[in-house]
Structures are given as C-alpha cells and as structure tokens.
Automatic annotation (TrEMBL):
This is Carbamoyltransferase HypF. It comes from the Bacteria. Pathway: Protein modification; [NiFe] hydrogenase maturation. Its EC number is 6.2.-.-. Belongs to the carbamoyltransferase HypF family. Residues 9-96 form the Acylphosphatase-like domain. It catalyses: C-terminal L-cysteinyl-[HypE protein] + carbamoyl phosphate + ATP + H2O = C-terminal S-carboxamide-L-cysteinyl-[HypE protein] + AMP + phosphate + diphosphate + H(+); an acyl phosphate + H2O = a carboxylate + phosphate + H(+). The active site is at 24, 42. Residues 203-393 form the YrdC-like domain. Keywords: Hydrolase, Ligase, Metal-binding, Zinc, Zinc-finger. The keyword Zinc-finger applies.
Amino acid sequence: MDHAPTITGRRIRVRGLVQGVGFRPHVWRVARDLGLSGWVANDGDGVDIAVWGDGPALDAFAARLVDDAPPLARVTAVASAPADGPPPAGPFVIVASHGGAVRTGIVPDAATCPACAAEIRDAGQRRHGYAFTNCTHCGPRLTIAGAIPWDRARTAMAAFPMCDACAAEYADPADRRFHAQPIACPDCGPRLWLEGADADPSADPIAATADLLAAGRIVAVKGLGGFHLACDGLDAEAVAMLRARKRRDAKPFALMAPLAVVQAYAQVSPAARAALTSPAAPIVLLPPRADAPVLPPALAPDQDHWGWMLPYTPLHHLLCDAFAARGGRVLVMTSGNLSDEPQVTDNDAARAGLTAIADALLLHDRPIWNRLDDSVVALDDTGAVMPIRRARGYAPAPLPVAVPGAADWPATLAMGGELKATFCLLRDGAAVVSQHIGDLEKAEALADYRAMLTLYRDLHQFVPAVIAVDAHEAYLSTTLGQALAEETGARLIRVGHHHAHMVAAMVDAACPAAMADAAVTQAVDWDAPTLGVLLDGLGMGDDGTLWGGEILLGGLDGAARVGRFAPVPLLGGSAAMRQPWRNLVAHLHAAFGADWQAQAAPVAAHLPDAARLSMAQAMLDSGTNCPPCSSAGRLFDAAAAALGLYPAEISHEAQAAMALEALARPFAAEEHAYQVEITGDPLPTIGWAPLWRALLGDVAAGVAPGRIAARFHHGVAAAVAQAVARAMADHALPPGTQVALSGGVMQNRVLVPVLRQMLGAMGLRVLAHGQVPANDGGLALGQAVIAAHLAHTT
C-alpha cells in the first residue's frame, strides 16, 4: 500500500557573497524544479529560506543550493534547522528583504558577462549599443553601493526608475535580470555624452570618442570606479603628450584591448588568460611576444612587462569596437588624475581637473559612489596569481580566515599602514580587506580612506571591539586608529610591521580561494614555529629602529627576530627613498669605510657632484639624519644606482628596483651569485661588503649590466637562504618547517623563484601570498588576525 510522502519544513540560512548575484532566483528555480513550497528573502545576515517538502527533495534542494550556485556567488556557510508550522499554500516565492544584524557582504564589481557582451552587439536587442547593460552575473556592485541589504533603493541606481520593460525582466524569476539591482536600458537608465573638442550633442558619443582617439587625441572616460585617461596606445606622440600633461614621467601605463589583440602582443599563458577573462578582469602584467609588433617604449620605460586588461564594462566593449573599426588596436587606459592623486570620480571634478589633460570628456550620469581602482596582478614562477594591487573585481570579497577558533574572535578593525593603504574588518571568521586606497601622506587619499572606513563600517554595521594599528607612531593610519579606539572604547593593540606581514602571508596561504583565479590553498600548521622572511622598504622594528630585511621565528602569538640585513644609514631620511644614489653611497660607506670613494671609482659616473658627496660624507660622519635601517628595498635601489638606473631621482615608488629586475630577467638562469658574509651572535646579520666588492669588480671588468643585475639577485637570494639555514640550526628547526614570504620585495619575479628553489632544497615548506598583496596592501589582514587572536586569548 502506497503512503503519501511526509512533508516537513526546513529553515535554511546561507551566508557569504549571496546578494546581488542572482542567488534568490537560483533558490526559486531549484525549489520550483523540485516541487517545494516556501519562500526566500535577503536580510542583513545573507539569504533566509523557509522550505517544505519530502525528505529526499529537501536533501536535493540543500545540495543544489551550493553545487549549482550562480557564478558570482561565494557561499561560506549553510545552516539548517527544522521549520515550525504547516507548509504554506501555493508555489515557492521570493519575498521582500527584511532586516537583522548585517553579516553578509557585497560582491565585487564584475566584468561584463558573455551574454551581456553579445546583447550589446546584437542589433535585434533593445540594449544594442547600450553602455550600461548588466545582469545578475555582471556589472557594478561596490561602486554604486550605499547600504546592505543589497537592493536598488540603497544604490546609486535609485535615481533611475525602471521602465515597464525593465520592471518586467526584474520581476520575472526566469529572466537573468531577475532582481538585478543595477538593471537599466536606453529608455530608463543612465545616459552617455561627450563634452569638449567641439562635440556635436546629436552625434553618437562612442563614435565621436573613437574618432578623437584615432586622431591622436586624449579623452577622459568615466568608467566604473573612476575616470580613465585614454589615447591610442600605438601612437607614440599621443602617449608622450599624455605623459607630459599628466606629469607622469615613467610609471607604466595600463593598456586595454580585446583578447585577440592582447595575444598578438603579449605572451598569454593559460593562467594569464584565466586571469584576464575572469569576472575580476584585472590588469595582468605580461611579457611581450618575441614576434610582436613593437610598442612605443614610453608606455613602460625600462620595463619588460606591460599591464594589459580586457574591456570590462559595456562602455569599454563598445569603445574598443568603435576604435577597431577606425583601425585602432590598443588603448591606453590609465587612471584619470594627475600623478599620485586619487582617480577622479565626479563629473564636475573631471571638468575642473582633467580638462588640462584631456581634449574631451566622455561622461555619464550614473554616480560613482565609491572610488575603485583597477586591480593589478602578475603571475609567479608557478603560474599562480600574485596580487600587486587588490581593488576592482576582488574587494570587498570576504576572505575566510582558516585559523582554528577564528569564528569566536572579537570584531576587529585593522588600520593597515601608511603606503598602499587598506584596512580590514574581521568578524565571524571572515576578513573583509578594503580596496587599495593609496598613500595616506596625500590629502586626497587620506580623505578617501576616512570615507571608505565609514562606508564599510556602515555597510556591515561593524562596531569594533578591538582596533589594530602599526607600531609606527607617526603613521596616519595609527593616529586614526588611536582616535577611533578612544571614540568607541575599543581595545587598541599595536602590531609589529613585519610580524603583520608574516602572518598575512600565512593567513593568505591557508585561505580558501575567494575568487576563481586565486592561488591554490596551502596547508598551514598554526601550532608549529614558522619562519618569516620579510623583505620590504622599511617598517618600525620591535627595538625602535627601522627594519626592512628580516627573518622572524614565531606565529600568531608573537615572533622574534632571528636574522637580519645589516643596518645601513638611511642617508637623508625620506630623501633616500626618492634618490637612489644616497643608498649607493650609504652602502659603499658601510662596506668600505673611509676608503669608500676610492672603491666607488667604477660607478663614479652615477654619483652626484663633489659638493653633494661632501655633504653626504659629513652626514654619515656625524649621523645627522641618517637613521640605521636594515631595508631590503634600499639595497635594491643602491644596486640599481650602481648600474646607472635612475641614480639621481625616481618618479614613482620602486622605479629603480623594477628596472633592475627587468634588466636581470634575461639572465635569470645565471649560475653565479655574489657572496655575502653572515656575522653576529646571537643575531645573525647579513653583511654586504663581499657583494659590493664583486659587483664593483664586474662593473670595472665590463661585465654586461644585465648579468651583474642577475648575479645581484642570486646573491641576495643565497644570502637569505644562508641566514635561514643558520636560524634553523640555531633553533633546532626540523625539515618541513614553514617559511612565510612577504614584504614588497617579495613581488620581485627574479628573486622569488630563486629563493623559493633554495628554500625548497633545504626541506622548507614555502607559504606565499595569493589573494592579498605581499606589499603593505596586505598588512591590515595580518594586523587583524594577530590582534583578534591576542584579544581572544588574553
């Protein structure tokens, strides 16, 4: 005898990036397909589901929620409990959002999906040629967000009431635009226009812009998270004009082109193609093809990689298409600002600030509520993504913190550093790292930092119990954190700069991938002592001096210095970060003492005049404005200056070191490494005198500069490996010990592969970054984890 199935109910809570990605229509479709009843809603905690049916159907429903989730969704947790009451009458429905404490996030802005890209090129579609086409799988998110839950009324699209056709798509669960909050069309959505260059208001603004670009003009283009300055990337005169007007002497320009064009100019590996075509659509640093047409050198002076990105909004797709129809191939798409200032986001600000650079402005009336730079990534020697700047496409995706007990830690806000500033909100075992904001010494970046901090706290209704700051008292992020702790009553915890770098690499390595193109998760033993190899510019050390080339031993609870680069005077203080010759003089003086000028004869052409050298000598003799600093970054600057790479002045951070890396790359297989000396007890210290003696000898002997640069890189790697071996012996560390690599110098793709190979040969297990940058852009993540753990355990 057949029995009717037993109908039961379940209340299911789904957390993660599940708003604004089509998750509710996904739930609706699965439920209807399985014949279930109930409802689904967004709220501050994610997605709330009440569902009734028989047991097997409910089990299938729960499995398909995750297995068949929309492409932009990132489910971090699913909780289920019995639902009270009888099943509701009628089919499964989507109901209005309701409140509750915010625990969900906003998905990152996503590149145009294939369906929307095809739609804007189809003359039979009503969105043909429409620059603001999007759906639940693509389009603006953080850039237009004002509050959670993610609903149109809380976004910059609230100013554009939907027409009947869009409203019908929005209300149809079978449509890919069902509850797509930024939905728009030519009848009801944002509009585009061109100003300047005697623009004809009746002309197609895309076509008119393409005409200007093809004629060698510069156009400011309002994009997704800010303005770009665009010109023909193959027109050397246009590129030179853009550099002159923007006052950007040498920092590389980003390039935009369709994938087929990128592949004609650059070496695009499968991993690079995956990064380029991912929803994040970052700028990817790629080497040129050997048979590629020559690009104007001024695009990236002294570099052997170019930053390429694909068109990632409908506007970019349409502009690239129109430019190609006029014979164009490659567009420069650099940030719309003067050098070192944040991107312009507002139309009036563009009219005031960009008209001295651009011949015309391509504008639209969709507000950019939140500035968002393009992300930049490279590929390491294993083919894994190496973040350089984490912004559009990645932020603000939460990163699961795979540390036992992290879900119980107190809500912690970490303020990050001074350069490449980001901050981090950590709660419930997940870390939300803000987008790259910039250098806080710039007033505009500091204002942006304050605004974003307010936004993120509001979005997440985040009240910190703990605030983590860098140990450097003078950092603006530190002073802001101190003030906020006094205001909120939160516990203030100071975290050592290099300890934060170390833990950031460990957390990053253990973090389950938040984006499809992120690095593979590595196992991390949180109970075992870990070595940290931290190479960067500088940061405040535990002893009150400036560190920058360090080996630490420890873990979450703390870390002790077990090796270091020899401290060298920072000649002129902050001036040494802009003028590489100062670092060369300081290193030669440290290596050879009073005889340094005689030893420097092979590189004398790269040193300043006698008067400035006399001044430098007096400063070194007296110690005036010459704080000792074990910086790895300044060592690389010194070597670059010795080879004539920007010895007098750099125009952007790491310019000389980047040129040195590019110079060394063709000789990366060089087997010779300059030697160093390791002295000191109990603190092993790497001394550079033997390296400098050999380097100067090679310069005098006429050895190719690229070979010298490669020998320098190999020498630094060997020195670090020797110091690590000494630390292992001194502290009886077993084979298989973890070593975490972090700091800005760990983005050097000549140094790191050599060092990784050496450490692997020693039986060490290398942990590296894959989702936040090794530079100070990842600092806040390490600060947050250390401070939250400390607050929980003390």
